[in-house]
C-alpha cells in the first residue's frame, strides 16, 4: 500500500509540474498568440486597435495578472477548454482532439499492443531456441525491418501496394462517399483503409521488441535460479515462461509503457504519409500553422498519457517483481 501511495503522490506531483510548464511556455514566448492572425490581416492594410482587441478576445488571449491567468488556466484544463483553433476557426480545440483521438487510439494503440505481444513471444522463442532457425529467422528479419525508418517503409508500401498494385487505398481513414457511423459497412471500410498504416507501424516496431526480449531472455537463462529449475526436472516450457520470461520481460515492460504512452501522440510521419486523420496529423497541422491553442492541448494530452502509462508500468512492476516495492 505504501508503494502504491508513493507512486500516486509522485504521479500527482509530476502532473502538476507538466500542467504548470504547459502554462508557462506559451507566455514565455515573444509576442501574443493572436499575432499570427493579425499579421495575415495586416497584409491587406493597417489593423486598428479595436480590431486587434476583438481578435484577441475572440481567440481567447489571456488577460489580467499571472496568478488569475494560472487559476483560470487550471480551471480550463479540468474542463478541457483550450479555446478555439486558429487553423480550424471557429471549431473548438476540444472538438478537434475528440475527433482525431479515436482514430489514433484504434490504429496506433492496437498495433502497438499487437507488436509488443508478438515481438515478446518471438523474442522468448528465439532465445530459448538459440542457434536454430527459430532464432535466426525472427532475429535477422526483425533487424532488417527495424533498420528502415517509419516514413521510408510507409512510402514503399504506399507506392507498391497502393499506386502500382492498387490493392489498398492511398490516403484517408475511410472512403469519401462513406458516412462515419457505427455500422458494419463503415467499420469494414475503415479497417480496409487502416491496413497500410497499421502494417507500416507493425513492421518497423516488431523488430525492436524481438531483439530486446531476446537479449534480456538470454541473460536471464544464465541465472542460477533458472539452472536450478532445470536441474529439478521441470518442463522446459515451464522454465522458459514461468521462470525466465517472467523476469526477462521487466525491461521490455518499461519500453512498452513508454510506447503505450506515446500512442496518444500518434505516429506523426505515418499519419502524414497516409493523410490519416489522427492526433499525429493534427499535431503536424497545428505546428505548420502555428496554432498555439491546439499545440498546447495536444502537448499536454501526450504528456499526461506518458505519465499515466509509466504509473501503470510502475504498479505492474511491483506485482511482477515484489522486490521493487521495498
TrEMBL record:
The chain crosses the membrane at residues 103-128, 149-170, 190-211, 256-274, 294-320. GO terms for cellular component: plasma membrane. InterPro entries: MetI-like, MetI-like_sf. Keywords: Membrane, Transmembrane, Transmembrane helix, Transport. It comes from the Bacteria. It holds the Pfam family BPD_transp_1. CDD domains: TM_PBP2. Residues 101-313 form the ABC transmembrane type-1 domain. GO terms for biological process: transmembrane transport. It is found in: Cell membrane; Membrane. It is a multi-pass membrane protein. Signal peptide: none annotated. Belongs to the binding-protein-dependent transport system permease family. This is ABC transporter permease. The lineage of its organism: Bacteria, Bacillati, Actinomycetota, Actinomycetes, Micrococcales.
Amino acid at each position: 500500500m505504501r508503494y502504491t501511495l508513493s507512486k500516486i503522490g509522485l504521479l500527482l506531483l509530476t502532473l502538476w509540474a507538466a500542467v504548470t510548464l504547459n502554462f508557462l511556455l506559451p507566455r514565455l514566448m515573444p509576442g501574443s498568440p493572436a499575432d499570427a492572425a493579425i499579421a495575415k490581416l495586416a497584409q491587406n492594410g493597417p489593423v486598428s486597435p479595436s480590431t486587434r482587441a476583438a481578435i484577441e478576445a475572440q481567440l481567447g488571449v489571456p488577460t489580467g495578472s499571472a496568478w488569475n491567468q494560472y487559476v483560470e488556466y487550471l480551471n480550463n484544463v479540468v474542463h478541457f477548454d483550450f479555446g478555439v483553433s486558429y487553423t480550424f476557426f471557429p471549431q473548438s480545440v476540444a472538438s478537434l482532439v475528440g475527433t482525431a483521438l479515436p482514430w489514433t487510439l484504434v490504429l496506433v494503440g492496437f498495433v502497438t499492443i499487437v507488436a509488443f505481444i508478438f515481438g515478446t513471444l518471438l523474442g522468448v522463442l528465439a532465445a530459448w531456441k538459440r542457434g536454430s532457425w527459430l532464432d535466426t529467422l525472427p532475429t535477422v528479419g526483425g533487424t532488417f525491418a527495424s533498420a528502415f525508418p517509419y516514413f521510408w517503409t510507409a512510402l514503399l508500401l504506399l507506392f507498391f501496394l497502393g499506386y502500382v498494385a492498387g490493392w489498398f487505398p492511398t490516403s484517408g481513414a475511410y472512403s469519401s462517399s462513406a458516412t462515419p457511423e457505427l455500422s458494419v459497412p463503415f467499420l469494414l471500410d475503415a479497417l480496409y483503409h487502416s491496413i497500410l498504416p497499421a502494417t507500416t507501424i507493425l513492421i518497423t516496431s516488431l523488430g525492436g521488441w524481438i531483439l530486446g526480449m531476446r537479449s534480456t531472455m538470454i541473460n536471464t537463462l544464465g541465472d542460477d535460479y533458472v539452472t536450478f529449475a532445470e536441474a529439478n526436472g521441470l518442463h522446459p516450457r515451464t522454465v522458459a515462461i514461468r521462470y525466465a520470461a517472467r523476469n526477462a520481460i521487466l525491461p521490455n515492460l518499461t519500453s512498452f509503457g513508454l510506447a503505450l504512452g506515446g500512442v496518444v501522440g500518434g505516429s506523426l510521419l505515418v499519419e502524414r504519409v497516409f493523410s490519416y486523420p489522427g492526433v499525429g496529423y493534427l499535431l503536424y497541422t497545428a505546428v505548420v500553422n502555428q496554432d498555439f491553442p491546439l499545440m498546447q492541448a495536444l502537448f499536454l494530452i501526450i504528456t499526461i498519457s506518458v505519465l499515466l502509462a509509466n504509473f501503470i508500468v510502475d504498479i505492474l512492476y511491483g506485482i511482477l517483481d515484489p522486490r521493487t516495492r521495498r
